[in-house]
Specification:
By secondary structure, the chain is of the alpha/beta class. Helix content is about 55%, strand content about 15%. The chain is built from 17 helices and 14 strands. A 5-stranded mixed β-sheet has the order 4-3-5-12-6, sandwiched between helices. A 3-stranded antiparallel β-sheet has the order 10-7-11. The protein has a two-stranded antiparallel ribbon with strand order 1-2. Helix 16 runs antiparallel to helix 17.
Length: about 525
């Protein structure tokens, strides 16, 4: 399957016609038609039902699209893995934003991102939130900022960025504006006799509007429909109309000042919409994408002090990035919150885990595997295996090296120092206490038996982590051979452990070189 051809076919499906798809792809219509015919000739079947508007897929076309999506996902994962091999400083980020969000955020956030990742190409996809979620789910967009109620949790991961509230804006010469004071909380039915400016389908505000119309059995007069919120706001202000709009897009807008009144809507939580970052579940995201999310969240966090994009937060509430406790674990993200908060987390986590984990460094690795790989998804098993391997190879205590590397990955050098300090804080305090009372308890029968029980319980914990990490470490016969040789050397000889590690690394490099280039 030619992936370029598959992208063309999917564009035709998405746009509904060859003419619209050609315009979107910036190619000529005859060229696109010829490509579709070529794909159908190779398949020996028609992919589209001719003579329908919009074009509809045949059964063969449906199967082709299903296979194309899988192939494109495989290709995307492969490219992301290549990015990882290049230290993830090069690559492409397909970034989804609404036009309005892009105007507000991107001029401030992108310069910081491009300075940090100068070799990453950004492809900007500007659509409404509903369409962006669809593109992310189909693998055509890597990560998107959407304003919605998460409804694709089976396919997408969501991280809450900030809260919003839908309000009704009304021109000063409308009936509702002459009847009610600015800022009065209302139900939408109170504007049933007004003319509405509405956003086109595909915007999350339109979804909320349609749901509220249905709830109140409203069928108001629609003045016009627009795809651009800025256009809609200004038409509303000058054409004796009303419009639904998020509060952050209205408050502080100098061009609307004195022309409209703002009415917060009274509605249930089922119609609430907030801003989320979303990406597809199960897809490896390069570190430069995590870096972009960190820059974005830090910027929003810094602007929460009374103003947001030059506008005070609605109704006196501060728009904030929620703490981890504010939303379920599946929405957490490795880069959430400010750097200071991440430092506190590292300090507290490693202090707590070291205070209540028995069995030394490998027991802590087992705990990290459960917390950071399985539950929080902050790293992959391969990441943890690599950190552990490097930690064992470097001078010093293995778990101290691993803790520093993990802390560095989350918050730079300060994060590494915080992790190591937290790791050593609890043992330091405990040893100070035990040193003074050890002689009184060292021969106590109950203490001796308790410690024996702890040693027995630690073995399956370490074994469990080893079995889970085995899949990421022992992928082929070469890995098994190196592991077996290391075990035999360490168990039955007095050979230097340092030289054993060095020989293992050299053996791995030799095996990889032979596989790639053969024996020369």
């Amino acid at each position: 399957m030619n992936l370029k051809h598959a992208q063309y076919v999917m564009a035709v499906v998405r746009e509904g016609s060859i003419t619209a798809a050609a315009k979107k792809l910036y190619i000529s219509q005859p060229s696109l038609s010829q490509t579709i015919k070529l794909v159908e000739q190779e398949a020996g079947l028609q992919l589209f039902e001719r003579g329908t508007t919009p074009l509809r897929l045949t059964y063969a076309g449906t199967r082709y699209i299903e296979a194309a999506k899988k192939m494109m996902q495989i290709d995307a994962n492969l490219q992301n893995e290549f990015s990882a091999l290049r230290m993830e400083t090069h690559g492409r980020m397909r970034l989804g934003f609404s036009v309005q969000r892009g105007m507000m955020l991107l001029p401030r956030v992108l310069p910081m991102f491009m300075e940090k990742y100068p070799h990453v190409k950004v492809d900007l996809i500007e659509q409404g939130s509903v369409m962006l979620e669809k593109l992310v789910a189909e693998g055509e967009c890597d990560v998107a900022l959407v304003t919605t109620t998460p409804h694709s949790k089976d396919e997408l991961e969501y991280t809450l960025i900030m809260n919003e509230r839908i309000v009704l804006i009304a021109a000063n010469n409308t009936a509702i504006a002459s009847r009610l004071e600015d800022g009065t909380e209302i139900e939408l039915r109170e504007a049933a006799q007004e003319r509405f400016v509405e956003l086109s389908p595909g915007h999350s505000v339109r979804v909320v509007q349609d749901n509220l119309f249905a709830l109140h059995s409203m069928n108001p007069e629609i003045l016009l429909e627009t795809n651009v919120m800025e256009t809609g706001k200004r038409i509303t202000a000058n054409c004796r109309a009303v419009m639904l709009c998020p509060d952050v897009y209205v408050i502080g807008d100098a061009e609307l000042k004195g022309k409209v009144k703002l009415y917060p809507l009274r509605y249930s939580d089922e119609f609430a919409r907030h801003s989320y970052i979303c990406w597809r579940k199960g897809v490896h995201q390069p570190w430069f994408i995590h870096g972009f999310l960190e820059i974005l969240q830090d910027y929003i966090h810094q602007t929460e002090q009374g103003l947001f994009f030059g506008a005070p937060c609605a109704h006196g509430n501060r728009i904030r990035i929620p703490a981890q406790a504010d939303y379920p674990p599946e929405r957490t993200h490795m880069n959430e919150g400010s750097k200071f908060r991440r430092l506190l987390f590292l300090l507290w986590y490693f202090a707590r885990i070291c205070a209540f984990t028995f069995g030394g460094g490998w027991s802590i690795i087992a705990q990290m595997q459960r917390d950071f790989v399985e539950e929080r998804h902050w790293m992959t098993e391969e990441d943890l295996v690599d950190m552990t391997s490097i930690g064992r190879s470097l001078p010093g205590v293995m778990i101290g090296n691993v803790s520093f590397m993990f802390g560095y990955r989350m918050a730079g050098v300060a994060g590494g120092v915080a992790a190591v300090f937290g790791l050593n804080a609890a043992p330091f305090v405990v040893l100070m206490i035990l040193t003074n009372i050890y002689e009184q308890f060292c021969s106590n029968l109950y203490v001796v038996k308790a410690l024996s029980g702890i040693r027995a319980a630690v073995l399956p914990i370490i074994g469990s982590a080893a079995l889970r990490l085995r899949k990421s470490s022992l992928k082929d016969a070469g890995g098994w051979l190196i592991m077996l040789a290391t075990f035999l050397i360490g168990t039955f000889t007095g050979f230097s452990r340092v030289l054993t590690v060095v020989c293992g690394a050299l053996a791995g490099l030799i095996i990889m070189e032979v596989r790639q280039h053969g024996v020369r």
